[in-house]
Structure formats: C-alpha cells, structure tokens
Amino acid sequence: MSGNTLGTLFRVTNFGESHGPAIGAVIDGCPPGLSLSEADIQVELDRRRPGTSRHVTQRREPDTVEILSGVFEGQTTGTPIGLLIRNTDARSKDYSAIADTFRPGHADYSYWKKYGIRDPRGGGRSSARLTAPTVAAGAVARKWLMQEYGVRIRGYMSQLGPIPIPFDSWDAVPENPFYAPNAAIVPQLEAFMDQLRHDGDSIGARIEVQAEGVPAGWGEPLYDRLDADIAHAMMGLNAVKGVSIGSGFECVAMRGSEHGDELSPDGFLGNHAGGVLGGISSGQPLLVSLAVKPTSSIRIERHSVNRANDPVMVQTLGRHDPCVAIRATPIAEALLAIVLMDHALRHRGQCS
Amino acid sequence: MSGNTLGTLFRVTNFGESHGPAIGAVIDGCPPGLSLSEADIQVELDRRRPGTSRHVTQRREPDTVEILSGVFEGQTTGTPIGLLIRNTDARSKDYSAIADTFRPGHADYSYWKKYGIRDPRGGGRSSARLTAPTVAAGAVARKWLMQEYGVRIRGYMSQLGPIPIPFDSWDAVPENPFYAPNAAIVPQLEAFMDQLRHDGDSIGARIEVQAEGVPAGWGEPLYDRLDADIAHAMMGLNAVKGVSIGSGFECVAMRGSEHGDELSPDGFLGNHAGGVLGGISSGQPLLVSLAVKPTSSIRIERHSVNRANDPVMVQTLGRHDPCVAIRATPIAEALLAIVLMDHALRHRGQCS
Amino acid sequence: MSGNTLGTLFRVTNFGESHGPAIGAVIDGCPPGLSLSEADIQVELDRRRPGTSRHVTQRREPDTVEILSGVFEGQTTGTPIGLLIRNTDARSKDYSAIADTFRPGHADYSYWKKYGIRDPRGGGRSSARLTAPTVAAGAVARKWLMQEYGVRIRGYMSQLGPIPIPFDSWDAVPENPFYAPNAAIVPQLEAFMDQLRHDGDSIGARIEVQAEGVPAGWGEPLYDRLDADIAHAMMGLNAVKGVSIGSGFECVAMRGSEHGDELSPDGFLGNHAGGVLGGISSGQPLLVSLAVKPTSSIRIERHSVNRANDPVMVQTLGRHDPCVAIRATPIAEALLAIVLMDHALRHRGQCS
Amino acid sequence: MSGNTLGTLFRVTNFGESHGPAIGAVIDGCPPGLSLSEADIQVELDRRRPGTSRHVTQRREPDTVEILSGVFEGQTTGTPIGLLIRNTDARSKDYSAIADTFRPGHADYSYWKKYGIRDPRGGGRSSARLTAPTVAAGAVARKWLMQEYGVRIRGYMSQLGPIPIPFDSWDAVPENPFYAPNAAIVPQLEAFMDQLRHDGDSIGARIEVQAEGVPAGWGEPLYDRLDADIAHAMMGLNAVKGVSIGSGFECVAMRGSEHGDELSPDGFLGNHAGGVLGGISSGQPLLVSLAVKPTSSIRIERHSVNRANDPVMVQTLGRHDPCVAIRATPIAEALLAIVLMDHALRHRGQCS
C-alpha cells in the first residue's frame, strides 16, 4: 500500500525513473490462458511513445518491452507478468542546471519536501515517462476485456487550450498526433502548437475516454465504487487536475427530471450518468472526462527559489512536451482498462 | 478490499442500510492517546443530520452515536473504534410501491443487476444515509489533524443549480442551511428551493472543500497520490459526478506560464495547483471542488421499466432531499479529513 | 491494513474489548443470496461460549449476536454484515489490582509498550473474548463453504498438557467439554483439570483442525499460499505458539521417498502434505495442527515488575480459563473457514 | 492482493520463473536516505546461491542483481526499488520428460489443477529459485533494521533429518555448507548427505531464525500480530510445513507457572514466549523455528499418474537440492527481516 500499485485483484506495480537504467511493471493476478505476446503490448506503447511528432518531446525512446515472466508458450500462466523497458535516450546533463532550483508547478519541489532527496534527472520518478509501464499493463487488460466481455475502450481529445474540438468521427482519431476526432480542425491545432512552441510556453487540454460493452454490475460500493476507482486512477495520471463522469460538472445546473436517465424496454434513453449508477456499472457506455494541466517545464523565465530559499529565475530547457495531454489519450485508456479488469475480477469473485 | 473500507493505515469500514436496525463504522489504526468522546463526533453528525430545515429530507433521525470500543478513560487506545448509530425513523412502507420498479438515475437498477437481490427500503445500502458513519469517522480524523498538525478543514456551496454563490465570508457558512458563504444570496436560494419542491423536482450543486495547514510531503506517488486518493473518496460520495483540484477544469484553457504557481522566499505566489504537486502536498491550502448531481428520487413522473422489463411510469414519493448537495458539505469535509489522516500516517511510516 | 481485518475478498473486521460495552465484527465481501439468520451464527458462538463447564472461565456471557446489516428477508445482500455482541458480565473491579503490574507471559506488558496506554479491564483488546466475533464470522463462512462446495470443517483436541488423546471417533467430540475425540479418556482429562485448578495453575494443549471437500486449486502463491494464510490466521489466535500442516514438524526426520504422497488413478495414497502442495490445495483433506500455550493468568504467585519497574509479586485472581485451548477448537475451525472462503473467492476471481 | 506481494508498508512484489528469462522483485515503501548498492544485496544472494557445495543443486547461477530504480547517488530515494536477476543456467530439456506427469509431493499437480496450464521448466513459478528475489529484498530490510534499530538477524540449522545439531557457537555457522552452529558435527552431516545422494533420496531439516534488538511494541493485533505475520511469511517459504515461536510445540505439555516468562527490574528471566506477547514484540529476542520437508524431486521411482490419470512411475532426474533446507537459512532470515521492517514502519505510522 505504498502507492505504486494499482488495483486489488488485477494489480499493477510500477517502478523506475525517467533517467535510470529501466522502467517497468509487474502485473499480478492476470487470469491464466490469455494469449499474450510482446507485440500485443508494443502496439499500445507505440501509441504513447515520445518523439512521434514535432508537438511532443523529442526524446527518442523505442520503448521496447520485454516480458520477463508469466507467459509460457504464448499464454499467460496466472503468475506475475514482469515487464521491462530499458531507458536508452537519457541525457542527464540536460538537467544538471535545475538540480538546485524548483520549477513552478512541478513536482520537484514536493518530492524534495517529502523525501529530503531529489533525483533531478528528467523529473526522476515524477516524470510522465512512468506512464509507459502503465500503458504496457493496460494493453494486457484491454486485450482480456475485449476477449472475455467484448469491452472496447477508446478516447480522444475534446479541447486543446482554448480550442474546442467538436466530435466528428472516431476514424479521425488515429490519423493525427492529437487524437482529435475531427480531421478538419487539425491544421488549427497544428498552428496553435507551433506558435506555442515558438513562445516557449505550454498548454492544457481535455481528454474523453469511453468503454463500451461493460456489463451491468461492476463496482464495489460503498467506497470502492467503479467511478471512485476510475477517479483515483485518472487523478493519479500526471498533470490531471479534474475528472468527471457522464455529464460531469454540467450536472450542477441540471434538474433531476433532466439528469436522471429514463429507461425503456429497449434500454436507457440517455446517458447523463456516464454508465455508472450508485458506483456500479449500468451497462451503458462508461464516459470519463479529464482536465490536463499545461506542462510546468517551459522555456519562459519564471520566479522561483532554490534549495536555500533564495529567489531565482527558472527557465527549463531540455526536451519537454508542450502539451502533455497530447500523449495522454492512450494512457487514460490504459488506466480505464486496468480499473475495469480489476473490477471484473472482483465482481466475479463475489458474485459469480 | 471489498469496497466498504476507506484508507490504508487509518481505515474506516462502513456498514448498514437506510432502513435496517443500525448503521455504523469501525475505525482501525487511530493513534493512541487522542482525547475522544461521543460529543466530539456528535457535533459533526448534527451538521449533516436530516430534518434540520425544510430544504432537506424530513426523516427524523437523532443520529446518536455510541462508541463501542477503542476508547478508555476518554482516550483512544490505538485499537479499533466501533461506532454505532441506530436507525429510529425507518418507514419501510413508504418504499413498498417502488420495490419492483427502477427510478431513473437511481442505484436500485445497478444494485439489482449486480447482486440479484434488492433491498428497496429507502435505497438500502445505496442510500445517502450511509454517509453518517463516514462523517462520524471523519470527526475523529478532523480532531487528530487539528491537534497534531493544526490542519483546518472547511467547505461551502459555491453554486446551487443555476445560481452561482460568490464567496463572501466563512462566517456566513454555518448561518444558513446551504453552507453558502454569502448571507445576501440566501433568500434567493430559499426561493429557488421552495419552487423546486413545489415542482416535485431536484437540483444539482457544486461544493468546495479546503484544508489549510497541511504540511508539504503528504501523498504516495505513483498511483496513490494525495489528489488521487481525494478523488477516490469524493467520487465515492453519493451523487458526485466530478472532482477537481485547484483550478480544476479551467486548466484546460490555461498556459503553463499562467497555471504554474511561482515561488518566492515567502512562499507560493498563487495556488492554481490546489495544494498538490506531483501527487504530494505542497504546503499550500488543498482546494477540492465537487459536482453533485440532482437527486434521482423525484415526484415528477418518469419513464422506466419494472423487473420484467415492462414499461412503467415511476413517481417517487416518500421523504427525499431535493438537493442532496445541501448536506454534502460536512460529508465532503469528513472524507477529506479521512484521506489526509491516512496519508499523514503513511508519510510518518515511511519518512519520519 | 491496521491489523484488525482478516482476509482479502471475504474480509472480517473485528472490534471491541473484553469489558467495554460491546464486541463485534463487520464482514465485507460475502456473496449475495446466502440464507442467513442469527441462529446460524448463534450455534457456533454457543460452542465457544464461556461458563459451559467447570473447566473454563466462569464468566457468564450469553454472547447473543445481533445482525445489524447485510441481510434482507433472510438472505445476504452482498453488502457488509454488521454483527454485534453486547458484553453483559464485565466486572472491571476484578482487575483493578493488576492495573499497575504485568502478568508474566501476558500481553499487558507489550500493549503498554506499544500504545503507552493500557486497558486493564480483563485484558482489554488482548482478551480471548475477542475470538467471539471471529467465531461469528466463521459461522457465515462455514455455512457458505458447505453449501457451495460441500466443505466440512471440524476439529478436536489431540493432547492436553502431558496427556496425548488418541483419536477414537468424531462422535465423541461434542460429548465432552474438551472436544476430545475419545470418550474413554475424558475422566482422566477431568481429573487432570481438577487438580490443575486446585493448584491455581494452567496448561497447554494441542488442537487439530481439518477441512474435507476443499477442491484442488485454492491458494495464491508465491506469498499468500493457502497454508501461509492458514498459518497467519492460526498464529493470530490468542496463545497459539506453533502451527503445522500435515505431518508438520515430523517432516524434519523424514525422507522424500516417505513424505511425498504418491498418486494413483484413485487419488493420493497418503496425506503427509496435509492437503496443500506448493501453497495450493490438492483436493485432499486440509490438516492443521496448533500448539496452544498455557494461560498466563494464574493464581500462583510469580515474579514481575510494575510500571515503575519495581519488583513485585503477581498473583492473578478473577475468572480465567486454566486451559485456553479447551475453547480453541471452534475458534480454530472458524479461522480455517474464513481463510478458505477468502481463497475460494480469490480463486473464483482469477480463475473462474 | 494476488499473492505475490509481501508486506503492507514495506512491500515486496516478486516475479519470475525458474527457467524464464529473469526473476526479480519490486520493493515499494523503503524509506529514503538508506545507503544502498548492489554489493549490499549481492552478499546475501551469494549466501543462498546454488552450486556452492556438493550437497545442493549443481545449477550454476551467478545470481547477479541489478538495481533498476529507487537508488540515486548511492541512496534510496523512497521510490520503488526494482531488482533484476537474469537466469543464465536454465536447461529446459532436463524437464521435458516430466511435463506430462506429476511428482509425488510436488506443486506441479496443484498448479495444474489451479491454472489449467503448467510450466514444467524447473517447476516454473513453484521453484525454490524464486526465493532469490525474496533474499534480495531481505538484504535491504536487514540493512535498514541494523542501521535504524540495531536489529541483528541470524539463523542456523538445528536438525538434519534424524540428526539433532546441538548449538555450539554462532562462529561455526558460516564455516560449513549446512549453516550448522557446531563444527564437530559437520563430518556426520556430510556423510549423511553423501549417502542420501547415493540413495537418490532427500531429507527434511529444522531451521532456527532469530532477531535480536527488536524494540518492544512492534505488531498489530488482532489479526496481523507480529508472530502471525512471521508465520505467514515462513509458511510461504517453499517446503516449510511447520512454524513455531519460542518454545513452540513444547508449550503443549507446559504449565503456566513454567511457560510464562517472569520479569525482574533487569528484564525478562526467560524467553519461552520467543519475544512476542499478544502479538506484539516484547523487546526480547525473536525466536522462530521452521520444519522443512524433504524435496519432492528425487531419483527413487515412485507411483504417480499423468494428466490422463493413467498410473505411471516417476523418477526425477535433473539438478535438485536433496535437502532444500540447506539453503533455507538465509531465506528465512530475509523473510524475518522483511516482516520486521514492515512492522517497524507500521508501528511508526500509528504510534510515533
């Protein structure tokens, strides 16, 4: 319970730092008999990989995953699945200049306050690089959920900074670096990002993630509701500052006669609830929305202090994502998959 | 890990149903030597008690708490604190009419799908009545946090349906039934609620909760970040559909040069981060915001189905909160206290 | 994870002290649809109840259990089952004399060292009275295991102090206060206990517990092996100082050609393994053995110290079991039931 | 909670198979600021390494550990410590003959029953090879315990099959391959083992492990007593069939006036309790005893069945420990260290 394990029955334990020798995860509790290869995982890692467009960090990491255990003759055995990803493009010198100062809005300050020790190499443990093992584990969950229950998980960006991205079609999503569900708006997003990079600044964004095909009945009230565990997982993702389900914050201004989704013999007539009632899945699509803050590592000079609490100006060079949310879609999908698979197993344990 | 326990070192296990003989909680892991009496807990229970104004459910429950264990000669012993609250105003007949149908937006549908069994007495386990044991446990955490660290937790309603409630002063909060931080707006809120009750409808609201005095260093990244555990606790509260930290969803449209809080030798110059950086408290006030959906139990007739999946019209009589958020402020405060105390102990365990 | 909860999916949280107002447990994770009444639990509580023969403590407790939640119309709902047992025969004055001294071999010393606070009323939390809620929870597990899998759990005393008790028949077990599987030896046990009581001393004993009908496949290696979790539960029982499986410590002197149980098409040809191979049940009867130390509260005067570390002589009057193992058989059965049910659910979750 | 993680605050997650590419562990919750290098861990791994005498398996594994994370500039950072050990001498062909049959007394039968899949390569996950990551993690705990509290953990073999090994001196222990605390008896042990190997058989043994310097107050009653968690850890070690504390099973025949350790102003006058009272450490040395069964993989032909349940004769060739207990001493020490460090942190969390 020391913070680096996600899940109760399907458990993902994450280790590593941005610029250490390797990062990885151990998945415990995966059912036996799932066909699994490194290719199943690599495809998801490649979706969140850095360096794939000019709008993300230019760090070059192949993010090649090695399965160390838990798979025999192409099938999971039910024992822990060890996953290893070597860091290959760590340039620790980039960070030497900032080892003694704190970036406004960055975890380097709070890590130092907590542990009394600070690993300045690329943000160390607080780096978004540590989402790679999460994505790797999520690939296993995603495959199992599809195979066992036909659950399909996907996501997209619905707003980039001030630019809302109207949903047009899922087909557009994989065709642009933003996971935007709208091909027509991509040039505008590109231009915005180019200007932002030129300014040396960063920007927030909003991500939507969905799961279709989730059976009714998953979730463990009172406290470990399905939506509570989703909120835990999503708010645990770097830079996320808000999580909502279904109509989310819009429910504040809504009446019960409007928000409560009516039922007919053919099913629900709306989905303001976002697929969860009382913490238990209702059988409708799960709808999750994330607010992702702008990256704190920017080229623009900012006021800060150093360890001695002297005032300093801080300017962060090196390789950073100007919009960390651009690569967040596959990560949020992975987190949703992990939570869902965990609850599928929990439900099976108690109620099968 | 079956869903009814909150926390890792400071653990609250909740039991009971709305119309069963009793509800309660067991608190495990409380440090020894804390002065504690039933009065310490009762004061918080009274803040969330039903029937205290015409705007909430008229169920009459004294919510008297009995401490069954864990306290000797007025001090906690370090062993489990058993808390018992008898239900005294259960009227199960109110609910007999709805036992076979499903209220749009209510958990009775998903509970039935999950467990195959349904306790229709006042929503059974899914009732907001089960927040009382949470509040009782939170009273213990709140007292300990204040005494050990000077942490002060408080909250207020910032929006009621379409009416934003501008923050005026903390002094106004306990003086009205809405926990509104603005005395001038109360008549408008009263009028809105009176009309709503007349309409037989319900309404959403937005709640803000804060903790001041939290030291830097609490939180367990990667997954059990302080904000992730807060999101888990808050999204686990009945009717909550969104949780955000600091500037929350506004970060989507912000630039890094705006969102990242600068530091000076006198401390931070802003608090867009809401007191958490990289999942660890920064020493600033913790700022949490909740979206609470409108109650699903309303008098207005709605389309639904019965267990046989036949179409029916559902109208919910009985005693219900037309705005469940009105009583949510002390509950959200309690949840924040529980999460903070748990993380205080976890931090002490690893880093003291 | 603060020590008063047993189990992962079937979870029992225990609270109370020997001389506080009440003791009890919350069971979380019980599957829905199990027929359950207070009578199902009371029968097991009556088996471990004090005061039923002259060989056990003369404290008179009816140990009447009240189900507070989790059961609706005679069936479990899948939500937490709250169990309450009021203390009715607490005589705190009995213990006032010992509040400042430490009984040799008793937990009062270590509790004081740990918590800095001491509840001297009947041993407070360390009292064997706290096994009652465990037995109550075990009754639920036992019923479910029998119904779902035909698992039958029973136990007996195999040695009382220096007197080995040869197994004769299960029929004898409920017919004597010792749970001795041998009617002929009972007069010898009675005489031994009468003399012991006359001496003001206490004695150890050995208990055997078995589960028949456990399917092959329960247990979670590496660390949470079925036998590891059994050892955890049993060593957690008051006064237990040793736990073994199958041939137990006799394996030390055995050869592999003797200890390894051969298989035939009709099943195993022996059960030295005690029903567990590699931490997973093999389908054979589970065989568990416990060493129970003599009670530390005796009338014979002994050397000790008081809180000021001055030498004192301690003599413990009041009502105590001269052989705490006499009532241990139903408790050990309950613990075995809880562990097995937990692993049944865990196995179902991962491998169903 | 899927079985491959040990501990609550100091958590060790173990992965790997005997003949897969690698084995390892992730340690979560280690306090920051502990000086740690691979050499600190390697010294313990070398103590349990195979192939170091003719009495153990002749598999040649350097068991070289690589620290993948959690250490920066020679100090732990408080973040997860990833440990990797590559398998280098896997010879899967040795096991092909047994893939379809079950060794009497071996986990291959129960693993197959549980998972429906079997990794026959050297026992796969059930191999004693998986104790290496446990030993690596234990090295970290051992170092921390010594540094923070002066706790010293050591063990020895007290019986090899029918040969009791009288304790003579700690100095003898590292000087012979058996961890025997008696130099004079070593020739007898050697002769016994040579004959056993000649016979193609295996043998059990008894191991004692101790911790000196443990402060009073560690342990979490009711269920997670210090001795309960020790029993869990030890019974979770391959081939262990019995665990006892202090006088252990001898307590069965003892009186309270004999077993209860008296106190004087200078401390306890005996240690029948083995350093634990009521589940909490008393400040005395912790005394733990283990019964280790004989290895099930032997050259002698035995009756068994194959997957089709046909009768077969099984003879296990390949490289096996004829007495798995010979290498168990450092493993049991590591497990004791892990449990103690976990409880040290838990105690600090609640009671510091």
Radius of gyration of chain A: 21 Å
Major beta sheet summary of chain A: 5 strands, antiparallel
Report the order of strands and helices of chain A: EEEHEEEEHHEEHEHEHEEEEEEEH
Main-sheet strand order of chain A equals 1-2-3-7-4
Q: Please tell me the overall pLDDT of chain A.
A: 94
Describe it.
The structure is a homotetramer of 352-residue chains. Chain A is 26% helix and 22% strand. The two termini of chain A are 27 Å apart. Chain A is globular and about 65 Å long. Chain A has helices spanning 38-48, 108-115, 131-149, 186-199, 226-235, 256-259, 328-351, and strands spanning 5-6, 11-16, 22-28, 65-67, 71-72, 75-76, 81-86, 152-160, 163-164, 205-212, 240-245, 263-264, 267-268, 276-277, 280-281, 286-292, 302-305, 311-314. In chain A, strand 8 and strand 9 form a beta hairpin. By secondary structure, chain A is α+β, with helices and mostly antiparallel strands. Chains in contact: A-B, A-C, A-D, B-C, B-D, C-D. The interface between A and B is large, with 114 and 114 residues.
